[in-house]
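Final report, closing paragraph on structural work. Over the funding period we assembled a curated collection of sequence-structure pairs, and we close with a single example.
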Amino acid sequence: MSSGRIAGKVFSMGTYRENEPRLKSAAKRNLALLIACQAIGQSANTMMFTATGLSFITFFPIRGLATLPMTMQHLGVMLWVFPAALLMQRQGRRFGFRVGSVFGMAGASTCAAGLYCASLPVMCLGGVILGYAVASLQMYRFAAVELVPLDYRSRAISRVTAGGVMAGIIGPAMVQWSYDKLMPIYVGTYLTMVVVHIVVFTIMSCIDFPPVREAVTTGGTTPTSMPPRSLLEIARQPRYAAAVIAGMIAFGTMSFLMSASPLAIVGCGLPHTEAHWVIFLHVMGMFIPSFFTGTLINRFGVLNVMFWGAAVLLAGVSVALTGTTEWHFRIALTLNGIGWNFLFIGATTLVTTCYEPSERGKAQALNDFLVFGTTATASFLAGFLQEQLGWFPLNRASIWLILVAVLAVAWLRVQRYQEAGI
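Its predicted structure, as stored:
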């Protein structure tokens, strides 16, 4: 190999060796700061998830609509993901992420105003605005790839995702501390979210992202400009299609069962506190494996880890179908989180191999548009279907969704065998 690309820059091997210690130190620092932003920023999203339903029912009598502002946030992600990604493509990651933090401040303030005025439309508007912040937050995993050497790609994605462990602790703790500081209750929580986004905005200023480039390596040491492919050409790649399908199934199945589980837990006669405990275990299952998922991908291959993720998701569904005690819910939702982690991080790693730097904005945006479109649909349907059909039919339906992910990964493996002439 005649050249090496570190943090978006192309170096000759001699130059790389001279700068390797400094580059490694800079990469570690930038990645650590990005992980901190992930932990703090994701905690705001956790606070939104924890507080929205409980704050909504303080003034709106129809409890079936309690998750509507969250659904509007998911729709906001779909609405904003292309503008957010293209802005970063043109102006750079730092500028784009700081714009996301500004939207987070505005969205949380709008939700606080909606709650204070007891206005459903205003709270929903706040959810849509927050969708931009969440869309930006989800792109941290793609930005991590640009901060490290190529052979560290999967571990960088995994480490940034691991920031969710701290978010799962910080978010609920902040809700517990802030929910009754101001009246009506939970106004203080939304205002605390504003402060959280200010902190992320500040930390983001300290990260050295690579400059915006439209260059790729063509085998030599000099970068040359290449015209970007159309979005259709990118999407028709087997790797890209399989990765996006797997990501959609991972997030859709996880959101579907997670959103329905509190209703199912209470409906089975278990206390509300059990729902809080189950969701905590689920969040830990989602993010704790991130400390080693990247290493597993490097050692065993991304397709194998994605298969394992689908298998663990199926194991969680199997446990859920065997009973409705507290331990059935705890184990099932923990396995659901672990399976999501393996399948989603594997899918994200695969997506990052499907585009050139000049194509990253639209390729990443299409991926997240489809993934979070699925998430929005799943979260909206979860409560309704739980009330109409029950917990067991939801889990049985999830089996078919997970099998689609298995088939997508198996199809990609067959494609690779054919390309290799095996």
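The beta strands are 3-6, 9-12, 215-216, 224-225. The radius of gyration is 21 Å. We thank the funder for supporting this effort.
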